[in-house]
Amino acid sequence: RVSPRFLYYTEGPKLVPFFKATCVYFVLWLPTSSPSWFSALIKCLPIFCLWVFLLAHGISFLGAHSSARKILAGLIFSALGDAFLIWQEQGYFIHGLLMFAITHILYSSAFGMKPINLLAGLVIATISGLCYTLLYPYLSAPFTYLVAVYIALIGFMGWRAIAGVQLANDLWTWTKLSACLGAVLFMVSDLTIAVNKFCFPVPHSRAIIMATYYAAQMLIALSAVECQDADVARKRSA
């Protein structure tokens, strides 16, 4: 198992651009009332940095690990979703929703279907149902159907990430735990978006949404690099 200290020293430096770009976003805090290509760039910049983070591990690494390729593809669709949501008041919210729906499908595929962990699936399904029940009275067509599908997709993604963490059998890894925490934060971020948009204003909603979103994407990107770091660790200990 790759140790957290090893991950810190091998992956930490590669994440420095991401942390800097995230700081730039929060320091500039550009108003959402005036969407522009510049504000879209600033919002997407941390995600671009996560592209670079994965690409920095080499094309051969991405070629050898389909899960890493799927997470990279998910990050690309996430950036497109971020850009569309800059202009959500101009009618592009559904476009952003579609991009993130594709992202969750890609992440779910990257996390895989083993182990199944039906209990985790049941818990996530229950929480997803409760969330939709909360939102349903505030939804109107086409969001009545679109939000239901989206909740199902992100719930499925969360289930597959959580199922990978087998604490009881001591089969977990730090990167699987990273994927799990990232998925949970992604769900928190999107639930905050939904409640704030459809139900009632959430205090400090933008800060909550973006902080949990960027943290989620970083953790999910980090979950893709375990195979290479395990190889490096074995070579160093040999």
From TrEMBL:
Query: What are its GO cellular component terms?
Result: membrane
Reactions catalysed according to its record: a 1-O-(1Z-alkenyl)-sn-glycero-3-phosphocholine + H2O = a 2,3-saturated aldehyde + sn-glycerol 3-phosphocholine; a 1-O-(1Z-alkenyl)-sn-glycero-3-phosphoethanolamine + H2O = a 2,3-saturated aldehyde + sn-glycero-3-phosphoethanolamine
**Where exactly are the transmembrane stretches of this chain?**
37-59, 71-87, 93-111, 118-139, 145-162, 174-195, 207-225
Q: What class of enzyme is it?
A: hydrolase
**The entry's keywords:** Membrane, Transmembrane, Transmembrane helix
Q: What Gene Ontology terms describe what this protein does at the molecular function level? A: alkenylglycerophosphocholine hydrolase activity
Transmembrane helix as UniProt keyword: yes
Protein topology in the membrane:
Multi-pass membrane protein
Keyword Endoplasmic reticulum, does the record have it?
no
InterPro entries named in the record = TMEM86B-like
What EC numbers are recorded for this enzyme? 3.3.2.2
Question: Where does the UniProt annotation locate this protein?
Answer: Membrane
- What family is reported? Belongs to the TMEM86 family.
What protein is this chain from?
lysoplasmalogenase
Species annotation: Pygocentrus nattereri (Red-bellied piranha)
Gene of origin? TMEM86A
